[in-house]
Amino acid sequence: MRLVDTHVHLCSSRFNVDRERLLKDVQEKLEFVVEVSYNRKTFTCAKELAEKFSFVYFSVGIHPHDSEEDFDESFLDEARKVINHPKCVAVGEIGLDFYRDLSPRSVQERAFLKQLELALESGKTVILHVRDAYDRIIELLRGFNMSFRGVVHSFSGKMNHAEAFLEMGFDIGISGPITYPKNSKLREVVAGVPLERIQIETDAPFLPPQSHRGKRNDPLKVVYVAEEVARIKSVSIEDASKIFVENARRLFGI
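Below the sequence we write its predicted structure tokens.
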């Protein structure tokens, strides 16, 4: 049985001590991973990792937290130069985060819309980051009046939000919080979303599964996410794993 991790941050400094060793383990146990950038620095690192390791693909994008500091026209120029790189599979993670408001909301929205346009122009998959801004981002996306290809990373919204995203063409990304005992609402969402529209991910080094709470997360722990989703959907982990790999290949064109 082999799985995928559709959202990792191996460029994080938390992997500086053992990144190469971990990547060797990942290569043996996972089909591939998507290294997701979130600012200028990680974009460069993600590209380098993808060029070095055949099983690593990457995205280019500015996270809403970094939109005030890192997003401008020069970034868009840089992104356009690599958007057709053979290992670049997505624009992301982009979106809105109204929980911390580390960048002004108006700045977040401008950066999001500009990068969404880049994804549409290039035909790339969109990786959405949404926190405490589900209604607003759905409103903005509906303004385009079109279907998208993308994933809502580490989904934490309600069922009506999931239904809206599915209708617009987005898959639902599920990560470690699905294993948290008190997260019954997310399990209800997973129960209502077709298995073929679920992407499994870790967001490593963040959001570790319940059995590793308080510790650094890594791509190998995606198995805990896969097992919980399979349990909820009443399918074997072997059958679910095949579907998860197919889902990721379809979404990212791998």
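Residues 105-122 form the longest helix (18 residues).
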